[in-house]
Amino acid sequence: MGEEKPRDGHSGKHKYAVACSIIGSIISILMGYDTGVMSGAMLFIKEDLKTNDTQVQVLAGILNVCALAGSLTAGRISDWIGRRRTISLASCIFLAGSALMGLAPNFGTLLAGRCVAGVGVGYALMIAPVYAAEISSTQIRGSVTSLPEICISFGILIGYVANYLLAKLPLVYGWRAMLGLGALPSAVLAVGVLAMPESPRWLVMQGRVEQALAVLRRVCDTDGEADERIAEIMVAAGLADDDAAASGAPHEPGSVGKGVWKEMFVQPTPPVRRILVAAFGVHFFQHLTGIEAVVLYSPRIFKAAGIVTRSEILAATIGVGVTKTVFILTAILLVDRVGRRPLYLSSLAGIIASLACLGVGLTVVERSAPHHSPAWAVVVSILTVFTFIASFSVGVGPITWAYSSEVYPLRLRAQGASVGVAINRVMNAGVSMTFVSLYKAVTIGGAFFLFAGLAVLAAAFFYFMCPETQGRPLEEIEEVFSRGCRARLRSPAAVVELPVSNVVPDGEARP
Length: 511
Known about the structure:
- Helix content is 75%, strand content 0%.
- The chain is mainly alpha-helical.
- Helix 1 packs parallel to helix 6, helix 6 (147-166) runs antiparallel to helix 7 and helix 16 (298-304) packs across helix 17.
- Mean pLDDT is 79; it is low at 1-10, 242-251 and 491-511.
- Pfam families: Sugar_tr (PF00083).
C-alpha cells in the first residue's frame, strides 16, 4: 500500500506549482491585451489612417494568420530548447511586434508589426497551457491549465481600460500608445521566467531524470508522490526499460520530438486518433460560437444596439472585460471540483440561449431604424452580450485550453498542442476577418443566429467525442481514450475498481 497523498489543493507545494504556472501564463496577457486594445484602437486608426472596412478586417485577423507560423513551429522548438526558454522567446517576439505597432507611421508598418506580434501569440498560446499541465499535480491541473485563459481575459480587460484612458490623447498618439503598451508585460516576463523551474516531463525526455525528480519534489506533497510520478513519466516517455535513460544519460541532440507527426497523422493508433479528434475539435468549435465577433467587434454591436457616443461604447466594453474575467475566475474554482464535461456543456447551453436572444434583439433594433428602437430590444441586446460573455467564460473558454493541453500523451503533447493552437488561430482569423462582411450579408442579428446553430453542433461534438479527464494523471489519460465510446463518457468517479482479493483467475468477480 502506497503512502497516503495529501489532497489539500492549497498546500505550500501546490501553491509553488500555481505560482510557476502564473508566471508562465503571463505571456497570455499579451495576446489578450492586443485583442482588447485593438477593438478600440481600430476606431481611431480608421479615423487617422483613413482605412476602409476591408483593411480593418485584415488588421483584426492578420494576428491570427501569422500566429499559425508561431504555433506550428512552437511545439518542435519547445521540444528542442525546453518549455521555459520557449516562453522567453515568445515574449521577445511580441516585444518587437508591439514596439513596431507603437511606432508605425502608416498602415503598412502597422500591419507588419501586428504580423510579428502574431508569431509571438502563436508561441504563447501553445506553450503556456502545456507548461502549466506539465508542472502541476492532478488535483489542481484543471485550474492551472485554465490560467492562460484568465490571463487572456485580464489582458483584454487591460486593453479595454487602456482604450478608455488613452482615448483622451491627441489622435496621432492615442492608438499608437494603446498598441505600444503591449511591450510592458514582455519585460516583466523576461525577469519572472528566471525564477521558474523547467517542466519535469521535458527534463525526463532529455534523459535528465535527477533534475526532473528535483523539480517534482518541489511541486509534490511528498517525496513518495514525486518518486511515483517520475516512474509514471518515464514509462510514458518510453524510458522505463532503457538503462541509459533510467540512469540519466541524455538523448542524442535533437532526437526528442522526432517522428511525432508520423505517429499523429500517418500511423495513429485508435486511442491517439480519438485524442486528436477531441483535442483538435474543441479548438475548432471554440471560435465558431462567435466569441471573437463579440469581443473584437463589441463596440459595433453596442453601437448597433443604440449606444452612440464613443466614451459610452468604450465604457461598455470595459464591462465586457470585467464580466469575462470574473466568470473565468469562477471556472477556475469549479473545474477541478465538478469536472470538464458538466462545465463545458452548461456553458454551451448558456451560449446558445444568449446568442438566440442577441439575434432577436439586434434584428428588432435594426428593423426599427431609423425610427426609435423599442427599449426592450435595446436592453435585451446589451444584456445578452454580457450573458454570452459570462456563459463562454465559465466553460468553453478556459476548458478548451485545459482539456486540449492534458489529453495528449507525453511524446505528442508539445507538437499536438502546436497543431491545436494552429486550428484555433485559423478559426479565430476566419471569424474576425469575415464578421463585418457576414453581418452585412445576413444582417447582424442573422450572424448571431448562425453562431447559435454552430454552438448546438459544438455541444453534440463534445458530448459524444470528449470523455471526462477530471482526476486522471496525465499518464493515464491515453487509457481513457482506448475504451469504447460509452465507457469513455463515464466519469472516473463512476468506475469502481474491485480489490484484487475479489477477483478470481478467470476474471469473474466473486460474490
